[in-house]
C-alpha cells in the first residue's frame, strides 16, 4: 500500500517460517523482520500474561560498526527500550485476559531509510505477525506518527522532519478506537493535539484495511489454549463468606496499609475455609484480586465513590518545597497524597552531555538527562536494587520529554543538565510528580526555563457500553490497577508538552479522549497556580553557589589549533594550571567552567593571549622558561613564547644572560614585533615603568 507517499510492502512466508507468525517489512528502504512466537503451554505459577517485546537495533542498518571492545550489539539502548514499551502498550490489551502462554514479539531493524522511521514499521510488523499467527489475538491494530512543522501536521514524518518538528506524536488504533497515545510537544494546544490524534486514527484505519487483506490470504486459525480464568464457583463461595458490603468497607480507605491488612485478613480466613480445596487455594490470591477489582469498579462507576473518599474531580492533598537537599545544585520535593518525589539537579559543562550511539543521525547527544528511580521501600516492599528496569527508563524519558520544550538553548545556558527523580513514596502517577518536582528543582538551580511545567494523570472505569464510563482525576495506585486507563498529560499554562496513555481495554472513544485531555488541563492549571508557583515563582537569577560557573567567549575558528596545541598539550597545560574545564566547539565557541572565579579569569586570559596577534608596543608579562647564550625565551601563555635578545635584557651591557635572569623569573616585556624567523621578539629594557600587561 501507499503510506504517507511511500510504499509499504509486507512479505509473508519468505523468511522465519518456523515462527508462529512472521512479517518481512519494507517501508521505503527501511527493512525489519517482525516475528511473533508463543509457548505450547502456559507458564506455571503466574497470574499475569507473560508478554515480552523486543526491538533490536542492528548498527549495520545504518552502516556503522558498534563501539566498544566487543564490536557487537550489547544490551538494548534506552531508545530501544522505549520503543519496545510503545509497541507493548497497544498490543497487550488485545490478548485474552486469561492467556498465560509466553509470547515474544521480536522486531529486528535491518536497514534504515531516513525517510521511513523504523519504529512505525516495528509497530505495524508486530501487529501483522501476531494477527496472521495462530496466537489468540483480537487484532489487528495499527500505528501512525504525526509531526508538526510551522503549524502543519505531517503523517509519518522523516527523521529529518522529526528533528525539527514541534510535535512527535504516536497513535495506535484498533478498527474503532484509539488504544495508545505517546507524545512529546512544544506546547501544542489541546485542540490541535486532538486534531493530530484523529488524523493518525484515520490513517490507522486505512492500514488496518490493508492488514485485513493480508490476514484473509495468509492468516492461520487461532490455537486453543488452557484458560486460567477463576472458576465462578470460587467467586460464589467467596461472596458467600465476604458479602459485597463487607468488601466495600475493607477497601474504602485512603490508607494503603490498612486496606492491604484488611484484604490479608480476609484471605487468611478463606484459606482456612477452603483448606481441603487445593485447586481453589492455588488461585485464591488472584480471585481476591479480582473480587477487589469488581468491588472498586462497581463503587466508582455506579456509586461514584472512590476508595479514598474523594470526589471524582478532586486532587489529593498537594505540597511542594525547594532546597530540600543541601549543597546539591538544585533540589525540590513534590507530594501528592501518598506519592512523593524528591528531585535533584546537577549542572556540568557541555562536554559531559550524554553521547548517543543509535540509528538516528539527528540524535547524537543528550544535553538534558532525566533519570527516575523507584526503590522497593517506596511501596513498602523489600527487594534488592538491580538497576533501572524498563518502567524506570520509561518514566524518566516521559518526564524528560515534558521538560525539554522549556529548557534554554546551550548558547543561552551552556550547561549539561542531569535531573534525577528519587521516589520516596508511590501511590499513583510518580512520573507526573517527577515532572512537577523536576521543574521546581531546575528553577532552584538557576536554570532559566521559559515556563513552568506540571503533570497529572486521569483514570477511567468503563461499563458495558461506550457511554457507560467515568473519568477520574488524579488516580491513585488502586484506581490504576483496577481501572481501565492511565492517561498522563504534562504541559504549561499554554499547551501540552508530553502525553502517555496506557489502557487495558480495546480502545477509547473520541469523547473519552477529549474529556481526559480537558480534565488533565484543569488539574494542571490548578497544580501550577495553587502549589508550584507559590513555592518558586521564577528561576533563580544565578546558578547555585556549589554549581560550576561557565563563561563563554568566541575565538577565530582558525585559532582553535593554537589553543588546543599539538596532541592537546596547550589546553591540557591551561587546565593543569587553573583547575578549570574547557570546551571548544568547531565554530570557535569556548566555554570555561570552574568554581574559582580567579582561576577562570586566568584561563580566559591565557586563551585570549594565545589567540591574539600581538603588535609592536604591546606590554606582556611572562615567565623565563629557557636561557640561551643569545638571550632568553619568555612564556606569556601556555605554549606561547617570545625571545628577549641578550642586548634587550638590561640597559647596561651584560656578558651572560644568567647574570640578570634565572629560570622561572616573571618579567614584564614590550613586544617588538616578529624577528626574521617569525618568532615574537621582546624587550625588557625598553618596557615603560609601571606599564600594565595586557595579559595580566
TrEMBL record:
CDD domains: KH-I_PNPase (cd02393), RNase_PH_PNPase_1 (cd11363), RNase_PH_PNPase_2 (cd11364), S1_PNPase (cd04472). Mg(2+) binds at residues 480, 486. Residues 617-685 form the S1 motif domain. InterPro entries: ExoRNase_PH_dom1, ExoRNase_PH_dom2, ExoRNase_PH_dom2_sf, KH_dom, KH_dom_type_1, KH_dom_type_1_sf, NA-bd_OB-fold, PNPase. Belongs to the polyribonucleotide nucleotidyltransferase family. Its main location: cytoplasm. This is Polyribonucleotide nucleotidyltransferase. Involved in mRNA degradation. Catalyzes the phosphorolysis of single-stranded polyribonucleotides processively in the 3'- to 5'-direction. The keyword Cytoplasm applies. It is found in: Cytoplasm. Coiled coil: none annotated.
Amino acid at each position: 500500500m501507499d503510506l504517507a507517499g511511500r510504499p509499504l510492502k509486507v512479505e509473508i512466508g519468505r523468511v522465519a517460517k518456523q515462527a508462529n507468525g512472521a512479517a518481512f517489512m519494507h517501508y521505503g528502504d527501511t527493512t525489519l523482520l517482525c516475528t511473533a512466537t508463543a509457548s505450547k503451554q502456559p507458564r506455571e505459577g503466574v497470574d499475569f500474561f507473560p508478554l515480552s517485546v523486543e526491538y533490536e537495533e542492528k548498527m549495520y542498518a545504518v552502516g556503522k560498526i558498534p563501539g566498544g571492545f566487543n564490536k557487537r550489539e550489547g544490551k538494548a539502548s534506552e531508545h530501544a527500550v522505549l520503543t519496545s514499551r510503545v509497541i507493548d502498550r497497544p498490543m497487550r490489551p488485545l490478548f485474552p485476559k486469561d492467556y498465560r502462554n509466553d509470547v515474544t514479539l521480536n522486531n529486528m531493524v535491518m536497514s534504515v531509510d531516513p525517510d521511513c522511521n523504523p519504529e512505525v514499521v516495528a509497530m505495524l510488523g508486530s501487529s501483522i505477525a501476531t494477527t496472521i499467527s495462530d496466537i489468540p489475538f483480537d487484532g489487528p491494530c495499527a500505528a501512525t506518527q504525526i509531526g508538526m512543522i510551522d503549524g502543519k501536521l505531517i503523517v509519518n514524518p522523516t527523521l529529518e522532519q522529526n528533528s525539527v518538528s514541534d510535535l512527535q506524536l504516536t497513535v495506535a488504533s484498533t478498527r474503532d478506537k484509539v488504544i495508545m497515545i505517546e507524545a512529546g510537544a512544544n506546547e501544542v494546544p489541546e485542540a490541535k493535539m486532538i486534531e493530530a490524534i484523529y488524523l493518525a486514527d484515520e490513517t490507522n484505519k486505512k492500514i488496518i484495511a490493508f492488514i485485513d487483506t493480508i490476514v484473509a490470504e495468509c492468516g492461520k486459525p487461532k490455537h486453543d489454549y488452557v484458560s486460567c480464568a477463576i472458576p465462578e464457583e470460587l467467586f460464589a463461595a467467596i461472596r458467600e463468606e465476604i458479602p459485597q458490603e463487607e468488601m466495600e468497607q475493607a477497601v474504602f480507605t485512603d490508607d494503603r496499609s490498612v486496606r492491604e491488612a484488611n484484604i490479608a485478613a480476609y484471605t487468611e480466613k478463606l484459606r482456612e475455609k477452603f483448606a481441603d480445596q487445593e485447586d481453589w487455594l492455588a488461585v485464591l490470591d488472584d480471585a481476591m484480586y479480582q473480587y477487589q477489582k469488581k468491588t472498586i469498579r462497581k463503587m466508582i462507576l455506579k456509586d461514584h465513590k472512590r476508595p479514598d473518599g474523594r470526589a471524582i474531580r478532586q486532587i489529593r492533598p498537594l505540597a511542594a518545597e525547594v532546597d530540600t537537599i543541601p549543597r546539591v545544585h538544585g533540589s525540590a520535593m513534590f507530594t501528592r497524597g501518598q506519592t512523593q518525589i524528591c528531585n535533584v539537579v546537577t549542572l556540568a559543562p557541555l562536554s559531559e552531555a550524554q553521547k548517543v550511539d543509535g540509528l538516528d543521525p539527528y540524535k547524537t547527544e543528550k544535553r538534558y538527562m532525566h533519570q527516575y528511580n523507584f526503590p522497593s521501600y517506596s511501596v513498602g516492599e523489600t527487594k534488592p536494587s538491580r538497576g533501572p528496569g524498563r518502567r524506570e527508563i520509561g518514566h524518566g524519558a516521559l518526564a524528560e520529554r515534558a521538560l525539554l520544550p522549556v529548557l534554554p538553548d546551550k548558547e543561552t545556558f551552556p550547561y549539561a543538565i542531569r535531573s534525577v527523580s528519587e521516589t520516596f513514596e508511590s501511590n499513583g502517577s510518580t512520573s507526573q510528580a517527577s515532572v512537577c518536582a523536576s521543574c521546581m528543582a531546575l528553577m532552584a538551580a538557576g536554570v532559566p526555563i521559559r515556563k513552568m511545567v506540571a503533570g497529572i494523570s486521569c483514570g477511567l472505569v468503563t461499563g458495558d457500553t461506550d457511554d457507560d464510563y467515568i473519568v477520574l482525576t488524579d488516580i491513585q495506585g488502586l484506581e490504576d490497577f483496577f481501572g481501565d486507563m492511565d492517561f498522563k498529560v504534562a504541559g504549561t499554562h499554554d499547551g501540552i508538552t508530553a502525553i502517555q496513555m496506557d489502557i487495558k481495554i480495546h480502545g477509547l472513544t473520541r469523547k473519552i479522549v477529549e474529556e481526559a485531555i480537558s480534565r488533565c488541563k484543569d488539574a494542571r492549571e490548578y497544580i501550577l497556580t495553587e502549589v508550584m508557583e507559590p513555592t518558586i515563582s521564577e528561576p533563580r537569577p544565578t546558578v547555585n553557589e556549589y554549581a560550576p560557573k561557565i563563561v563563554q567567549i568566541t575565538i577565530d575558528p582558525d585559532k582553535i589549533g593554537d589553543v588546543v596545541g599539538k596532541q592537546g598539550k596547550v589546553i591540557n597545560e591551561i587546565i593543569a594550571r587553573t583547575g578549570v574545564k574547557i570546551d571548544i566547539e568547531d565554530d570557535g565557541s569556548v566555554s570555561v567552567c570552574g568554581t574559582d572565579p580567579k582561576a577562570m579569569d586566568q584561563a580566559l586570559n591565557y586563551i585570549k593571549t594565545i589567540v591574539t596577534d600581538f603588535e609592536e608596543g604591546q606590554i606582556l608579562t611572562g615567565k623565563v622558561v629557557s636561557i640561551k647564550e643569545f638571550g632568553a625565551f619568555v612564556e606569556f601563555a601556555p605554549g606561547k613564547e617570545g625571545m628577549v635578545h641578550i642586548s634587550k635584557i638590561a640597559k647596561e651591557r651584560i656578558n651572560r644572560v644568567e647574570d640578570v635572569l634565572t629560570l622561572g623569573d616573571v618579567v614584564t616585556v614590550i613586544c617588538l614585533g616578529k624577528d626574521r624567523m617569525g618568532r615574537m621578539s621582546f624587550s625588557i629594557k625598553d618596557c615603560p615603568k609601571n606599564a600594565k600587561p595586557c595579559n595580566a
